[in-house]
Amino acid sequence: MTTIASQFGMKEALEKLGIKTINEGTSTGVNNFSSGEILESYSPVDGKLIASVKMTTAEDYEKTIQTAAEAFKKFRLIPAPQRGEIVRQFGEKLRENKQALGKLVSYEMGKSLQEGFGEVQEMIDICDFAVGLSRQLHGLTMHSERPGHRMYEQYHPLGIVGIISAFNFPVAVWSWNTALAWISGDVCVWKPSEKTPLCGIACQNIIAQVIKENNLPEGISCLINGDYKIGEMLTADTRIPLISATGSTRMGKIVAQTVAGRLGKSLLELGGNNAIIVTPDADIKMTVIGAVFGAVGTAGQRCTSTRRLIIHESIYDKVKDALVAAYRQLRIGNPLDENNHVGPLIDTHAVEMYAAALNKVVAQGGKILVEGGVLSGEGYESGCYVKPAIAEAENSFEIVQHETFAPVLYLLKYSGEVENAIEIQNGVAQGLSSAIMTNNLREAERFLSATGSDCGIANVNIGTSGAEIGGAFGGEKETGGGRESGSDAWKIYMRRQTNTINYTTNLPLAQGIKFDL
Ligand code: NAD
To answer: Which of 20, 430, 444, 516 is deepest in the core (most CB within 10 A)?
Structure first.
């Protein structure tokens, strides 16, 4: 019998990535000391067991951190451009493994094959970005107020970076952090989501080759496996100066408090509740493409997925009808088959949350425009496939105020000026991604102004979903305030030092203070 896995060459992909039936201990040749209970990974695509990993015990954890700390002592001495060369080689290895890793991402997480490849491409892109950056970790020079003095600032490696990642970007988020952390001279300890542990093993196996070929200490890249309990060990650990955590706002609030309690640094990338404003001057065709991809791409499981459409009353019916017609065309099924638009949710718990959201929006006064539902039968055996749904709602509904990690799109109506739409758009606790569809320059600029969108990402004539690695990525309010990836996001991975050098034979004090002895 042909299974989905065999049809799409999954066995070969797993072999190439060094995934075994049970992945334990240091068998991968990289720093993965996990020897605890078994964690099984089932595919949401077909419900089948892919492989298992062993979870990290408290003793394994201790060994990992000690190995990372030892590696840091050596790694920080390597000049930054040479660290960039390591990252360049890692990017090359990712190119060689793009097909296999993209397939695993798709099969273990459930996103489309194209999105799986796209995620690996993001990893390659951040490597390229980091290589150039490794020669540009600039500090400033300043003029001293004292004669014969020179002042400047420089950036030094920070230490161990703890990375906690979510299931929906099971490989890219790790690389956004590691590529920048490595060129900065830091070493990394990664706790991937317990829902996608094999992606963690695969990435670790790829970097292991680079570490080995360059005769570097393996503790530069460490992996710990398990659920929130192992994450808690990481966040409470005073030996880890920076915790970069990607996931739900619920998780971020716990992590932020723990890390702040020991005065550590945290970089938080949390939930979104993203909206597109559609003004009377919008290009309707572009709007529909942007909104549908934003709402149903990755089955609505992107932090930047479009959850709310805020449409001007004058074009409301037109946009609504076009959307409903577009939703009728959607093909739901195996994400490895490129003919399908929508794959599964990550697990049956996510399906329950999706169904609950649809019940709630009706109970709170909304109206379903495109019916949802859980699919069953041939091809849907995992129980994770759902129909993308659209509901008319009000921004004040409790369910609209929350991020439901599923393909549920709420249509909201506004009247009058664009400021009314902006007020609705900003009227949620989260602040990740936002967009306006308009050909009106004045409206676009008002949306981007200081009184416009309050999100970390604000786009014009592009949807909310997806971002390029060159820009700093992240959001405000309950999205956590962190920025990673491009621009100057590297600064959080380093410690800044201000240096003043006196090249005179006197010791003048600052602020004109006299201290004669
Ligand atoms: P989640 O919060 O359930 O889990 C994320 C990670 O946190 C997992 O590795 C989990 O084990 C760990 N974790 C959970 N509780 C913890 C604790 N108390 N201490 C330490 N670690 C803990 O999120 P998820 O369901 O995997 O992912 C979906 C969420 O992630 C959505 O809210 C989505 O918006 C968000 N997300 C945000 C971004 C972003 O860049 N802003 C990117 C991807 C996903």
So the answer is: 430
To 10 degrees, the CA torsion angle through 18, 52, 102, 245? -110
Q: How far is the CA of 227 from the centre of ligand 1 (A)?
A: 11
Mean pLDDT across the stretch 244-272?
98
Q: Are 482 and 269 in contact (CB under 8 A)?
A: yes
73-270+483-496, CATH topology level: Aldehyde Dehydrogenase; Chain A, domain 1 (3.40.605)
Ligand 1 proximity of 360 Cβ (cutoff 6 Å): no
Q: For residue 226, which atom of ligand 1 is closest to its CA?
A: 11
How many angstroms separate the CA atoms of 73 and 178, rounded? Answer: 17
The share of the chain scoring above pLDDT 70, in percent, equals 98
Q: What is the pLDDT of residue 27?
A: 39
From 53, 111, 190, 303, the mutation candidate for ligand 1 (largest count of ligand atoms within 8 A of CB) is 303
Nearest atom of ligand 1 to the alpha carbon of 432? 41
Task: List, by residue number, the catalytic residues.
Answer: 269
Structure confidence at residue 35 (pLDDT)? 83
- Ligand 1 pocket test: pick from 165, 168, 485 the residue with the most ligand atoms within 8 Å of its Cβ: 168
Check whether 28 has a pLDDT greater than 60: no
232: Cβ below 6 Å to ligand 1?
A: yes
132: region left, alpha or beta (phi > 0 left; psi from -120 to 50 alpha): alpha
Decide: 298 in ligand 1 pocket, CB within 6 A. Answer: no
| Whether the predicted model's global pTM rises above the 0.70 cut | yes
- DSSP-assigned beta bridge partners for residue 457: 433
Ligand 1 atom index nearest CA of 195: 26
Residue 163: Cβ within 10 Å count: 26
The DSSP call for residue 507 is -
Atom of ligand 1 nearest to the CA of 403: 32
User: Which residues are within 8 A (CB) of 348 and not within 5 positions of it... i.e. 6 or more apart?
Assistant: 383, 384
Q: Cα separation of 433 and 426, whole Å? A: 11
> What is the per-residue pLDDT for 1?
55
Which CATH number is 274-469's, of 3.10.25.10, 3.60.15.10, 3.40.50.300, 3.40.309.10? 3.40.309.10
The dihedrals phi and psi of 501, each to the nearest 5 degrees, come to -120, 130
User: 52: helix, coil or strand?
Assistant: strand
- 380 within ligand 1 shell (Cβ under 6 A): no
Per the CB < 8 A criterion, the answer to whether 199 and 170 are in contact is: yes
Give nearest CA residue, ligand 1 atom 8. Answer: 193
Is a pLDDT exceeding 90 seen at residue 466? no
**Cα dihedral 498/499/502/503 (nearest 10):** -140
Provide CB contacts within 8 A for 242, sequence distance 6+.
158, 159, 160, 161, 162, 186, 264, 265, 266, 267, 492, 493
